[in-house]
Each structure stands twice: as C-alpha cells, then as structure tokens.
Amino acid sequence: MEMLTRMLRIRRFEEEVIRMVARAEIVGTAHSYIGQEAVAVGACLALRDDDYITGNHRSHGHPIAKGGDLKRAMAELLGKKTGYCKGKGGSMHLADFSLGILGESGILGSSIPTAVGAALGSHLQGNDRVTVAFFGDGATNEGSFHESINLAAIWKLPVIFLCENNQYAVSSSIKDMIPIDNIADRAGAYGIPGVLVDGQDVIAMYEAQSLAVKRARASYGPSLIEGKTYRYEDHSVGLRRVVRTPYRTDEEVEEWRRRDPIAIHKDRLLSQGIADQAEFDQLDEEVTKHVAEALEFARESPYPEPSDLYEDLFANPIPLDR
User: For 135-177, what is each residue's pLDDT tens digit?
Assistant: First the structure.
C-alpha cells in the first residue's frame, strides 16, 4: 500500500504540474514523470533513509519516491523561499540531504559522477550507505556514464546505476541511438551485474533493487539495472510546439498505457485481497487533497529576497559592506 501511495503522489503531483505549466504558473517548462512511477518507487523503497540518490531533469518523481515533502517540492517549482532549494533551483534541481537526496540536474548524465563520488565517500568513511544514480537511456551514450561506471567497478564502490529506459531521448528512439537491445548488456564490459527489469512493475523493481543494494552493502561493488518503462507525456510539457513532426504513434502510447504501473499494482492488491476499490478511492482522494494543499502552500509562500542571491555560495562575489 505504501508503494501505491507513493506512486499516486507522483501521478497527482505531475498532473497538477502539467496544468500549472499550461496556465503559465510555472515559468518555462517541466518534465513529467507520468508512466515511470514504478521505477523510482520500487527502487527507493528498497533503500534506507540515509542512503543517497541522484537524479536528472525528469526530477519530481525521485524525491517524492524517496519520501520528500510535496509542499517543499511544489514551492521550489514556483521559485519560493520555502522550496527545497529556497526557490533557486526550480523544477530540475531538487535536493534534501536529510533524506539522502543529493540533487537533480538538468545537464544530461552529470549527476552520475556525483553518485560515484558519494559512494566513494561512503567507502572511505567505512559506513554501508548505498547510492543510486537515476538516469535515462540517452545518458548512457554520454562519457560521464562510462567513466563513472568504469571507476566504480574498479574500486567496487557501493553505487547502483539505474537506467530508466523510457524508449526516447527527447524525440529520438532508442532503436536509432543504441546498437544493442538492452542497456543492461553494457554491464558486461565493466565486469558488473546487468539486470533487466519490467519498469512498469513496482514489485519487480523493488526485488531487483533489493538484491543490488544487498550486494553493494556487502562491498561487492556496483550493479547496472535497466527498468524498461515509458513516459506517457512528451519529453517536456509543450514540446509539440517545437517538435511538430510525430516521433511516436498513438498506438504505441496506448499500448504502454494499457500497462500502467499504478493499474498493475492495484490489480495485484485486489487479487491478493490486500485492499479493495473503496480503499483505493479513499487513498486517491487523500493524495489529491495533499497535492492541492501543497499548491496552496507554494502560492502563499514568499519569494526570496534579492540579498538571498548571495547566500549558499562558496564565496560571496560582492562584499555586503560596500
């Protein structure tokens, strides 16, 4: 039921974000995580609170799956002082060190080395924290991916490379970008396990992640997990105004929608007698209410002061006494 709760939080949060972009309440755009909820939730529920995660531009699902606060996330999207990064990060840069959320990044593949650095820190400190790097299929063609996974394999660092293969890098099909069928097969080049998982099944993701976490905690080194999933929306909200040529068919999208991760998990809970439809409806109502409360909190929160621009820097470039 906790898996269902977190997947619903992501779904309802992202649906509201799409509406916010449409009414220009969010400056710029946002990258929807709808359709991929099972990957982050299954993976994060296999972690401890003090384990680390890093993410990418599709950045709302990972912090929510790790147990993040909807109010602080929503406030960050609106650039408010009460947001996760005090309104300075925006949609693609959410972080909360208290929950092990080391940050998301809009630069493709850039958070993968950060995850390896965190894993190296855990190794040098002698603790058993595990780090998970979330990234998409497009990032596996970046040098940062290969350099990071190679170094982690050599030093047997406690890091899990989790590729969310949603089939497209913006509008380019993975079939045109990668000469192999499965990204997990690339693990063999680095002498580490490569695991292919149904990314629409939250239980399958949890089980695969649990094994990788156990391996990492025991100092056996990294794993590469590929969750085969699909984003129902475009790469970013409003992309069709820019990329007007269709890059996927309606039939393909509908085929994946029939394997919705939330519906799959609901059917499992129903068939096992864990919950009934009335409980699902009540849970959905509660989650929807919490998202609405988060939006109201964000709207009522203050914007940062101009002087806040010079806080949280390594050095203040403008002395305040002048």
Answer: 999 999 999 999 999 999 999 999 999 999 999 999 999 999 9
pLDDT tens track for 24-48: 999 888 999 999 999 999 999 999 9
Quick: pLDDT tens for 293-310. Answer: 999 999 999 999 998 988
**DSSP letter string, 25-40:** -SSS-----TT-HHHH
In which element (H, E) is residue 195 found? Answer: strand 194-198
Q: CA nearest 93: which of 71, 79, 2?
A: 79
CA distance 310 to 151: 35
| Residues 175, 234: Cα–Cα separation, whole Å | 18
Instruction: State both tokens at 250.
Output: 């309606």
Q: What are phi and psi of 26, to 5 degrees?
A: -105, 130
Could you tell me the fold of the domain covering 2-301?
Answer: Rossmann fold (3.40.50)
Domain ranges of the chain: 2-301
- Is the separation of the CB atoms in 209 and 215 below 8 Å? no
